[in-house]
Every structure is written in C-alpha cells, then in structure tokens.
Amino acid sequence: MRYIRYAFLAAVAIVLIAVALANRGMVTLQLLPTDLSELLGLQRTLSLPLFLVIFGGIVVGLVLGFVWEWLREHKHRAEAAQKDREVKRLERELKRTQSERDKDKDEVLAILDQAS
C-alpha cells in the first residue's frame, strides 16, 4: 500500500511539474479593473508566472474549503463534546452509587459485582 501511495504522489508531482513548465509565461494581475483603479488611485499590479497563479488559486480554494467545512461541522463537534461530558458524569455517578451500594457488603462480593 505504501508503494501505491508513493507512485500516486510521484505521478501527481510529474503532472504538476509538466503544468508548471507549460505555463511559464508572465501574466499581470491587477487588484481592481482599470477604470475603477484610476478613479480610486489604487494602481496595484503584480507580474507572476501563470503556473503560480494556477497553483495559488488551487491552494486558496482548498484552504477556503477546509475552513468552510470546519465551521460547518462545529455544531457536530460541540454536540459530541457535550455528550462526552455527560457520559463521564454518568460514569462517575455510577461508581459513586455502586460504592454506596457495596459499602456494607463483603469485599470479595463487592469485587465480584464490579467485575460483572
């Protein structure tokens, strides 16, 4: 299974390198459309190779997806934590009531009751 993973990662690396080599041309990114940037006086441009723009878009999309999913699952994690606290509280209560019940019993019988 480990070798299949390594082969898959090698294939992905080869594809990414091929995409990067095929898209080495420089592109100019602008912060705002030309008319709006002239109106506001924000002439921000950046020249990058096209493959960096492509890979950057993929990374930004993945990060946004992970954050969105983490926020979406918050209610499920909170509910699971609340149920975990409730289970621990009930286990403590059960041990306390068992110890109170077994207070007057013989020690051997109390141990046997706890084992079953």
General description of the model:
- InterPro entries: LapA_dom.
- The chain crosses the membrane at residues 46-68.
- Residues 71-107 form a coiled coil.
- This protein is mainly α and 116 residues long.
- The protein has one domain.
- It contains 5 helices and 2 strands, in the order αβαβααα.
- It has a two-stranded antiparallel sheet.
- The longest helix is centred in the last third of the chain and has 28 residues, at 74-101.
- It is elongated and about 90 Å long.
- The mean pLDDT is 89.
Brief overview:
It holds the Pfam family LapA_dom. The protein has 116 residues and is mainly α. It has helices at residues 2-22, 34-40, 50-72, 74-101, 107-115; strands spanning 26-30, 45-49.
What would the keywords be for this entry?
mainly alpha
End-to-end Cα distance: 42 Å
Query: Going across the major beta sheet, what is the strand order?
Result: 1-2
Give unreliable regions as ranges: none
Main sheet summary: 2 strands, antiparallel
Total beta-strand segments: 2
Computed over alpha carbons, the radius of gyration is 31 Å
Instruction: Tell me, rounded to a whole number, the average pLDDT.
Output: 89
